[in-house]
Design goal:
alpha/beta; Aldehyde Dehydrogenase, Chain A, domain 1; globular; Aldehyde Dehydrogenase, Chain A, domain 2; six-stranded mixed β-sheet
């Protein structure tokens, strides 16, 4: 852990064993915070907020720009750590470092753009609207993007003038600590950024019970997100929630099937499908259904699966032993319900947490995998006849994080943009995230946005000042 600039050792504390998902071997022991550690982090964050809220914009921007430079210099080292902890191919981990570089550089510019306004009032009166930092932030980040998620959680509060206590995933702690260390080495005052680890429910209850924390930022499952929102509501804390998804992909019969497959198969298997915006439910029009289904299964079966550190590997292991177990439950249940298995559906090897890329078709709506976020390398491909039926299926679930569509019909593209219920929609592309674009969902997929100006605004409060 890092509290008040100190690297907190194991000492008397409970420990979590960090595992290498490619081998199942232990990488090291992580200290877990006790109540005294959390109280110290809270007190430090309170001091940090008083200090950082008054820091001028150029100082905040310099820290973020400096951290971006250090991330680039340390890219290979940090990427290898992330691959060891989380399992993704090294090429994906390198890109994840660069995601943070772009985000920190963008947020550095946003430090200069916290615009207020002056209202028109009668002579002798003045009314202004100003933006102020919300206060200390408790930020909870998951394991699937062990570099990118901590970067999002740290960058926005720091740009806004807030202090932050980061509770990243115990499965991938060194990646998160490396991101925070870049900020500290770039000049972030030690009181402003803290990183703690622990038993998740203990940490969340302790931090959110404190009046020091004024905002909660969480990325993770809908179930946990709802629980944390209830805790935050007790003290009326602000919340930004990026929760689960079940990404629909609408493929219409006017497309170039080979081009769509070339794009979507790698996208589906990025990070072994452990991506909140992963394309999952393929809603395919009947005219291209068989070609799409068979082509997808053929390409998925040819993917090279192995250790993320090996050259040429296209998909690494799943991040922890819970994920292959979930795949077995969901995929087995779908097959028993009548789904057709075209490839995969099994674990790979005897060491590590590998699961084969899997393609299911004609999956009944009643199957759990059609209603729960699978968070793994499984594609669900079903045929549909009309555009209206396809949109209805895309909107059927209470999730609305990301959706994808493929069609050449310009009028249809406009209808989809209006009618698909989602926070982010890709039309004829899979590129949906950028440092300048808001990232967030609707319905059970959460509220608020990260990235873009919206990410920083989520860490600010609005004050109206009226002077007579």
């Amino acid at each position: 852990m890092i509290i008040d600039g100190e690297k907190v050792p194991l000492g008397h504390r409970r420990v979590h064993t960090v595992m290498n998902p490619a081998t199942g071997a232990a990488l090291g022991a992580l200290p877990l915070a006790d109540a005294a550690d959390l109280d110290r982090a809270l007190e430090t964050a309170q001091r940090g907020f008083r200090l950082w809220r008054d820091a001028p914009a150029p100082q905040r921007a310099a820290v973020l720009t400096g951290a971006a430079r250090l991330l680039k210099e340390r890219q290979e080292q940090i990427a290898r750590v992330a691959t060891l902890e989380e399992g993704k191919p090294l090429a994906e981990a390198r890109l994840e470092v660069m995601m943070n570089v772009s985000l920190f550089e963008f947020y550095a510019g946003e430090c200069q753009r916290f615009y207020g306004r002056e209202l028109v009032r009668p002579p002798g009166m003045r009314s202004t609207v100003v933006c102020e930092p919300v206060g200390p932030v408790a930020a909870f980040a998951p394991w699937n993007f062990p570099i990118g998620n901590p970067g999002r959680k740290l960058g926005a509060p720091i740009a806004a003038g807030c202090s932050v206590i980061l509770k990243a995933a115990e499965e991938a702690p060194a990646s998160a600590l490396a991101v925070l260390q870049c900020l500290l080495d770039a000049g972030l005052p030690r009181e402003v950024g803290q990183a703690v680890f622990g038993v998740p429910d203990e940490v969340s209850r302790h931090l959110l019970a404190s009046p020091i924390i004024r905002k909660l930022s969480f990325t993770g499952s809908t179930v946990v997100g709802k629980h944390l929102m209830k805790l935050a509501a007790e003290d009326c804390k602000r919340t930004t929630m990026e929760l689960g998804g079940h990404g629909p992909v609408l493929v219409f019969d006017d497309v170039d099937v080979e081009h769509v497959l070339k794009t979507m198969v790698p996208s589906k298997h990025r990070n072994a499908g452990q991506v909140c915006v992963s394309p999952t439910r393929f809603i395919v029009q009947e005219g291209v259904y068989r070609r799409f289904r068979d082509g997808f299964a053929e390409r998925a079966a040819q993917l090279r699966v192995g250790s993320g550190l090996e050259e040429g590997v296209q998909m690494g292991p799943m991040a922890n032993p819970r994920r292959p177990e979930a795949m077995e439950r969901l995929i087995g249940g779908a097959v028993r319900a009548g789904a057709k298995l075209h490839t995969g559906g099994q674990r790979l090897g005897t060491k590590g947490y590998y699961y084969a890329p899997t393609v299911l078709s004609e999956v009944p709506q009643s199957a759990a995998v059609m209603n729960e976020e699978p968070f793994g390398p499984v594609a669900l491909i079903n045929p549909f006849r009309t555009e209206a039926e396809m949109i209805a299926e895309a909107n059927r679930l209470p999730y609305g994080l990301a959706a994808f569509s493929w069609t050449r019909d310009a009028a249809r593209q406009k209808r989809l943009a209006r009618e698909v219920e989602t926070g982010m929609l890709c039309i004829n592309t899979t590129v949906l995230a950028g440092p300048d674009a808001p990232f967030g969902g609707v319905k059970w997929s959460g509220h608020g946005s990260e990235n873009g100006p919206e990410g920083v605004m989520a860490c600010l409060v609005i004050k109206a000042v009226h002077e007579g």
